[in-house]
Design brief:
Elements: H1 6-18, H2 28-34, H3 39-45, H4 49-66, H5 75-88, H6 90-98, H7 106-126, H8 133-154, H9 162-171, H10 175-178
Helix pairs in contact: 1-2, 1-4, 4-7, 5-9, 7-8
């Protein structure tokens, strides 16, 4: 039996609270009191609640993303799993998107985490010197577009099934990135 880590307990506490309260109103004290831990324990693992949010996002997507091999598990499979996760957790994600603003916004963290995962994958796949300035711009364009599109979908700006949204995102990949996103 796998026991939950302290980080996982803190994240679960935060998510539980986010079902009852706006994210921007949840304090560190709320999080630790909800799971009977101390503020010192929280700060041992996270610098603030936005760091917790970013860790939770990376934990959910990083392992699956690094499993993309282009054959048994494709980039499309990863996108579909990400979109399905977003749909299943849309109430929590809507709270994050609607109640985090400015520099610490959830969308900024998602974009930064996704860019880091994609860069790492690209360099592992094609070599350290393969990520030139043009490829960085293509990658940013793709990540910014897909993250913002998925967030608009989560908050209800348009309707699509997870499968249809996945197809739309995959069809938007520009030619220079197609070799990377298999």
């Amino acid at each position: 039996m796998k026991r939950k880590t302290t980080k996982e307990i803190l994240v679960e506490s935060f998510i539980e609270l986010s079902k009852k309260k706006e994210v921007n109103r949840i304090t560190i004290e709320d999080i630790v009191n909800n799971c009977q831990l101390s503020p010192a324990t929280f700060y041992r693992y996270f610098k603030d609640k936005y760091d917790l949010i970013a860790w939770e996002y990376a934990r959910n997507f990083d392992e699956r993303f690094h499993a993309v091999d282009g054959q048994k598990y494709t980039w499309r499979d990863y996108v579909l799993e990400t979109v399905r996760y977003s749909w299943e957790n849309r109430i929590y994600l809507q709270n994050l998107l609607n109640n985090t603003k400015g520099y610490q916004s959830y969308i900024k963290h998602v974009t930064e985490c996704t860019l880091a995962m994609y860069r790492d994958h690209f360099i592992r796949k094609f070599g350290e010197n393969s990520m030139d300035g043009d490829m960085e711009i293509y990658l940013r364009h793709s990540v910014y577009g897909s993250v913002h599109l998925a967030c608009a979908w989560v908050v209800g700006e348009f309707e699509a099934t997870p499968e249809h949204l996945t197809e739309l995102i995959c069809n938007c990949v520009i030619d220079p990135l197609k070799v990377f996103m298999k």
